[in-house]
Design goal:
The complex is a heterodimer of chains A (312) and B (523).
Chain A (H helix, E strand, L loop, with lengths): L1 E11 L2 E12 L3 E5 L6 H8 L7 E6 L2 E2 L4 H5 L2 E4 L11 H11 L4 H14 L15 H13 L5 E5 L7 H16 L3 E5 L3 H7 L2 E6 L2 E6 L1 H7 L6 E7 L3 H10 L3 E6 L5 E5 L3 H13 L4 E8 L2 H8 L6
Helix pairs in contact in A: 3-4, 5-6
Chain B lengths: L5 H8 L2 H12 L1 H28 L9 H32 L2 H8 L5 H29 L8 H27 L4 H32 L8 H29 L8 H25 L3 H21 L8 H4 L6 H10 L3 H25 L10 H31 L8 H24 L5 H4 L7 H11 L3 H18 L1 H10 L29
The chains are: A alpha/beta (312), B mainly alpha (523).
Chain lengths: 312, 523
């Protein structure tokens, strides 16, 4: 199962919401879709979910065109919008039962499917609770459960982590990992880049409707210049100034700065080996190192580096 | 797994929207409170009346009005509950749920828009049946108090039920109109005012019906002809509201106009036959005249809607356009599209004209030379009004595309209304200024030729200068048609089946600078 997005275009008047984008992802992958507000993420996702129509281009889910065969395509897609279910006078179970019926699930099979999904999404304990009484995290789980009712191989999630508390976020992350292990292709948009980086197999960075970067995170990092690849934070018991001056003279250090808490932050030109050599060198020079913390450049750095943050 | 039993099969067959709505209604404190209050009111009213009657000794004497009076009050309670609560409840719920996300979620299920709307209507009908069935015993009891017969009781209950059904259709239609909160509130106020008006009218009509008694009318052919005509028009109006609601809730990328146009044409033909049959069987011309009025309204609405429609087709719509050119020509009339819509309105007008011609040709009425005159006048008046709508609509299309290219086609109706106001008032005001106190219609009517209101006055009442209006509107129509020929043929040419330009292939490594392709195998 593969999802191919081919030269997709969608304009709203003079605004190019999606401007000739192409990428693909496959079963078992979680794909992050990142970009500033108004970059075209939701539009692309809505086209994939057959809710919108592109001006040009197409998207194929397992070879099925979302334009030519929207009825077939929507059976393959589970869509989790950024809004949460808030129907009045309705319990979680009734909500899922309603959508089960709407997806054409019949009788005993529907009940089995709903029970299984409630268990999988950990909704058993709140199945009789009214939708309006749910917290954001719980409502998000209900939303995911609804999208899984017809067992779609592709899941499209628009900002599922927005406004969730840390526990709910962790639970959602675990849920996504499980879905990925089950072989589902997941396209997820989020502004919480650190979390996205932890679970995603690849990312697409989009701005002004155009793709800026796409691929595996390491590969993007390798191909992106002007990003400090690795930063180290060093704290010693004493001789802070001396440490700072020493680092400035070290060939593998590109830039160093002494912070107010006497920590020295330095950008290392190199990888794991260079960091180890640096630590060994410091000890050899007699610095009493009490903390040596290294941090790799991540999605946040790439995002900040490649996007301009302008709104169309 | 056990094979599904009858109940389970029945449960699966029910529209999911009905199940959802009824579950929500049962859980809703508001609905439960209204139903309980309704029952309590009926019980209290009947109880108080019987107690007072017993204390005053009225029950020992024969009062020929008691049943009628009690029935009237019970009907007020029933209608107030069902008309002011039920349609408002259905409309308000749907309007609240008509947020984009909820509708989107329904779109990506297997539920069709028509199933969503019919589910909303059906659930309201179920609640109405519940309330009516709770009320029927109380109302039937009034028969024993005298002054009313059972036929009148059940006839009035049937009328009430139909009116409630129509009101629910109206409110569901208003609820699906895409609008912001302010406009929604405004539509809510309009809807409520309309409900109050229908409530008052129904009450007045049924009270007079009960007062004069229904039994003598049952032998009267005219009575049945009126009933049949009213029911036909009721079905037509409900059908129009239903198809409009379905069109409004359908995805913008769908051919949302199709059900509406199919209904308009089918109902126009069927109701034409039915009205003619009623006219023949009752020897009355009026049922057929009401059809002309109904068809005229439908044609006018079709024109008014058509000028706002799209002028090109998205791939999703165009993929369903027939490849066979012979089928494509009639299909053009039934696809969302401005030019096709104008042609469709022409088709409706043609059906109306043909109907009138056939009716005059075959009507077996004994006073043939006289009969048909009013039908002719009504048709002519309707035709000139439609000609004016066409002229203003097509002028609005021209003005919007030539002078206001930034205005979206969906707002052509605003331009059209502005032009109607301008064309109706501006020449009149100018002439009033020129001639000051000396202005009179007989001498200066040429200044108001652009006003369709005066055209109606001329055709219905004055009947002296009708030809001036026909020539004026005819010349105007010819001119705007000529100026819109390019617009029209451009749309006809664009009406072609979709040709897929992209094959569903696995993407190669990106070579296009404007797009990045990501071969999954390399991840």
């Amino acid at each position: 199962m593969r999802v191919n997005i081919v030269h997709l275009k969608k304009y709203y008047g003079s605004t190019r919401a999606v401007d000739d984008i192409s990428f693909s992802f496959a079963s078992g992958q979680i794909f992050g879709f990142v970009g500033p507000n108004g970059a075209g993420k939701t539009t692309t996702m809505r086209i994939l979910a057959t809710l919108d129509e592109p001006l040009d281009g197409d998207a194929f889910i397992d070879g099925i065109s979302v334009i030519q065969y929207p009825d077939k395509a929507r059976k393959l897609v589970g869509y989790v919008p950024d809004n949460l279910p808030r129907h009045r006078d309705m319990s979680v179970h009734e909500y899922l039962d309603f959508f089960g019926r709407a997806y054409g699930l019949k009788g005993g099979h529907r009940r089995q499917v709903i029970d299984r999904i409630e268990e999988f999404t950990n909704l058993m304990g709140i199945r009789e609770k009214a939708l309006v009484a749910l917290s954001k995290g719980m409502a998000q789980r209900v939303s995911v459960a609804r999208a899984l009712l017809h067992d779609p191989p592709v899941l499209i999630m628009d900002e599922p982590a927005a406004g969730l508390d840390p526990r709910a976020r962790i639970e959602l992350r675990e849920l996504l990992k499980m879905l990925s292990w089950q072989g589902k292709a997941v396209l997820i948009s989020s502004h919480i880049l650190t979390e996205l980086a932890e679970i995603c197999d690849g990312v697409v960075i989009i701005e002004h409707g155009r793709i800026l970067r796409a691929g595996k995170l390491d590969r993007i990092l390798a191909n992106t210049t002007d990003i400090p690849k690795r930063t180290v934070h060093i704290r010693t018991l004493d001789r802070h100034e001396e440490l700072y001056k020493h680092l400035l003279q070290t060939p593998t250090i590109e830039k160093a700065s002494l912070l107010v808490d006497n920590t020295v932050e330095a950008e290392v030109n190199g990888g794991e080996d260079e960091c180890c050599d640096l630590l060994a060198g410091l000890i050899q020079y007699g610095f009493r190192v009490r903390e040596f913390r290294q941090r790799r450049a991540g999605l946040e750095e790439i995002f900040m580096n490649v996007t301009k943050g302008e709104v169309q | 797994m056990k094979p599904p039993g009858f109940i389970e099969k029945l449960d699966d067959a029910i529209n999911p929207i009905v199940v959802k709505e009824l579950r929500q209604a049962v859980r809703s404190r508001f609905v439960v409170a209204v139903v309980l209050l309704f029952l309590l009111l009926q019980l209290a009213f009947l109880g108080i009346y019987l107690t007072i009657a017993g204390l005053n000794g009225w029950l020992d004497t024969i009062d020929y009005q008691a049943g009628r009076d009690v029935f009237t009050w019970l009907q007020v309670i029933l209608l107030a509950t069902c008309m002011l609560f039920l349609p408002a409840y259905a409309g308000a719920r749907l309007a609240a749920e008509r947020s984009e996300v909820n509708t989107d979620l329904l779109f990506i299920t297997t539920l069709q828009p028509r199933k969503i709307i019919s589910g909303k209507l059906a659930s309201s009908v179920v609640i109405a049946v519940m309330i009516f069935s709770a009320c029927a015993p109380f109302m039937a009891f009034t028969y024993f108090l005298r002054g009313i017969d059972l036929v009148s009781i059940f006839f009035v209950i049937a009328i009430d039920f139909l009116v409630v059904l129509g009101s629910v259709h109206l409110m569901v239609f208003l609820a699906v109109i895409p609008a912001n909160r302010v406009l929604k509130a405004f539509l809510g106020v309009i809807g409520f005012a309309m409900l109050l008006f229908i409530f008052g009218m129904t009450l007045a009509a049924t009270i007079s019906l009960v007062h004069f008694g229904l039994s003598p009318m049952l032998e009267n052919r005219e009575f049945w002809s009126i009933c049949a005509t009213v029911v036909l028009e009721f079905v037509g109006e409900c059908g129009l509201l239903y198809t409009w609601a379905v069109a409004l809730i359908s995805a913008p990328s769908a051919n949302r106009i199709l059900p509406m146009r199919v209904f308009m044409l089918a109902f126009g033909l069927i109701s034409g036959l039915a009205h003619a049959f009623i006219a023949y069987s009752t020897q009355q011309e009026e049922p057929f005249q009401s059809w002309i009025l109904f068809m005229g309204q439908m044609t006018g609405l079709a024109l008014f809607i058509a000028v706002n429609e799209r002028q090109s087709w998205t791939p999703r719509v165009s993929r369903t356009i027939p490849r066979n050119p012979l089928l494509r020509v009639p299909a053009f009339l039934f696809y969302s599209g401005a030019a096709g819509g104008v042609l469709f309105a022409g088709l409706l007008f043609g059906v109306m004209a043909l109907g009138v011609w056939l009716f005059k040709l075959w009507h077996p009425l004994p006073v043939a030379p006289v009969m048909g005159t009013i039908t002719d006048e009504m048709f002519n008046c309707m035709a000139v009004v439609l000609l004016y709508i066409y002229c203003y609509g097509m002028t609005a299309v021209l003005v919007r595309s030539w002078l206001m290219p930034g205005v979206q086609h969906v707002y052509t109706w605003v331009v059209m209304l502005f032009l109607i106001a301008l064309g109706s008032l501006a020449p009149f005001l100018v002439s009033a200024l020129i001639f000051m106190g000396g202005w009179n219609y007989h001498e200066h009517f040429v200044w108001v030729l652009g006003n369709p209101g005066f055209a109606i006055y001329e055709f219905v009442d004055r009947k002296l200068d009708e030809t001036a209006y026909v020539y004026f509107a005819g010349a105007w129509a010819a001119l705007v048609t000529l100026l819109n020929v390019v617009w029209f043929f451009r749309q006809m040419r664009a009406f072609r089946p979709f040709e897929a330009s992209h094959a569903p292939t696995v993407l190669p490594a990106g070579s296009d600078s404007s797009s990045v392709t990501l071969p999954v195998s390399k991840l």
